[in-house]
Amino acid sequence: MTNPMIKVMLLLFLVLSIRADEELMKKECSQTGNQNLCLFCLATDPTSNQTDLAGFVNITINCLDAQLDILINDVTSLSTKGVGEAIENVLEDCNGDFSIAKIELYLAKGNLVTRNYENASGLVKTSVSNLQTCRGNLQKIKFNESSHVYDDIDIYVDLSPVAKTLIDRLH
């Protein structure tokens, strides 16, 4: 028979360790300049309560990658709706920009593995320029078909400094 005191101690340890991990998430996210977005991103991954700063960086990059998937799907969907050749060409270019950003995130992950934090941080930062290029091109043609594309770009632009700050805190 198991001692009830041992069960209570184990439960208390589990509760305290989860609470400590939540505090670590809050502490690290408070350093990013966008604590709410950082916490929201980390909350999307069930392992965030059991990881460290390096894990938070990976989760944040995964959030950026997921945001790119959303943008690619949105833009692909829009380009098949017959919005006109000029808009379709810009949307196609945007998908190219998003694909380049995905490659940069992939390379950033590789740099994290090799502990080349400066390169990883730089790749996250430059990935934003691809989205800004897309936004600029859409604005040039006065694209108003779907405001959520602009909103999704804003989310990426706001989340990327979170990832960059967390990466910079690794070294």
Automatic annotation (TrEMBL):
<dbReference type="InterPro" id="IPR034086">
    <property type="entry name" value="PMEI_plant"/>
</dbReference>
<feature type="domain" description="Pectinesterase inhibitor">
    <location>
        <begin position="20"/>
        <end position="166"/>
    </location>
</feature>
<feature type="signal peptide">
    <location>
        <begin position="1"/>
        <end position="20"/>
    </location>
</feature>
<dbReference type="InterPro" id="IPR052421">
    <property type="entry name" value="PCW_Enzyme_Inhibitor"/>
</dbReference>
<dbReference type="GO" id="GO:0046910">
    <property type="term" value="F:pectinesterase inhibitor activity"/>
</dbReference>
<dbReference type="InterPro" id="IPR006501">
    <property type="entry name" value="Pectinesterase_inhib_dom"/>
</dbReference>
<protein>
    <submittedName>
        <fullName>Pectinesterase inhibitor domain</fullName>
    </submittedName>
</protein>
<keyword id="KW-0732">Signal</keyword>
<dbReference type="Pfam" id="PF04043">
    <property type="entry name" value="PMEI"/>
</dbReference>
<comment type="similarity">
    <text>Belongs to the PMEI family.</text>
</comment>
<keyword id="KW-1015">Disulfide bond</keyword>
